[in-house]
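tool_call: predict_structure(chain=1)
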Amino acid sequence: MKLYFKWILLLIFSFVLFVAFGEKPRLIYPEVIEPSTSGLGGVPTTYYKRNSVLFSNPALFAFTKKHTSVTAFNFKIDSLAYSALKYIQAKDRQTNLLNLLAHTNSLCTNAAFTGPISFSFIDKNFGFGMFNTTRAIALLPSLSSLFSLVGEDIVITGGYGASVFEREEHLISLGIQMKGFFQVYAYMNSTLFGSAYTIFEKKLKGFPVVLQAGFGFDLGFAYKYRDIFTLALTCKDLYSPVFLSYYENYKDFLDSKPNTKASYKTFMPNVNLGFSVKAISEGYFKNIYSLIFYMDLKNMFSFIPSIRKNYLLNFAFSGELVLHRVLSLQFGISELYPQFGIGLDFTYFNLNLSVYGKELALDPWKRPLINIEIGIHFDYNKH
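tool_result:
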């Protein structure tokens, strides 16, 4: 009886999903996979090592040193993808898939790969970079519906930051950053069996295509006391318009024949506040190179939208311990789930692995999702 009611609820949720998505996907935020900071619960607002300043706060360009990243290969997958593959490879796929849906209350999974375009140049006061990411997303509330999406993101970003006040041991900096992005996705929003027909019978001719292109501005503020304490505030997507065009299939996309007029939307601004404390400075101990703690309040005004998630999910606390300038250990709590990362710095290339939890629901500990990221960076003229 309990299983019966679960399926009733899943069918209702499936209907709501179709109403929400209609026949076209919602705005999808461009993504760059970066395992070197995922172990911190995402890039902290005061973090500016290597090329991470491109994703944290443009005001931190005032503190950066010269760094060039030639290319990178970073991969992300979540735990549900592993479960889905296990059930798909089983002999009785339908029964196993039903069991999977019954135990997870729907299936939402994604995977992404950043590279080989992953170039960035950082110098004092400014920096820029270009990245490509291949993504796949699947949302399966029940066997009656499937929303899937596969595509590519290309992101170009650059920023400038400079100190506006400097006296003795106090420094204040401001920064601005601009980004442009280009996204192409093939998607399906159908029943599971209708999707199978599209894949195996109609092939690429049956996949609608959406093109997203846009640009955006970020602003940042940072205050630094000596090399011990840093406080920062940043507004992501202060103004980020997105233009969307829809095509019946990939041939129409290549021929530039959209089936409707281009539509216009914007990303919501995202204000983040954070501070960091350097507990152990470089070179103070022989074996421990540095230890820094980070505290962040992400998306400060998330209580404004009509659909609000629990505000506790916006807090993140993390730390990074560097040993012998080679081994870095990252740890923390974000969205009330543990985060962990490890990195090896070999001067001209870095290896990074991170494992972290995320919350898919609006309240803590309702729908946890474990993510794994692994990557390699190739650097040049690093100091």
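agent: The longest strand covers residues 145-167. Proceeding to next step.
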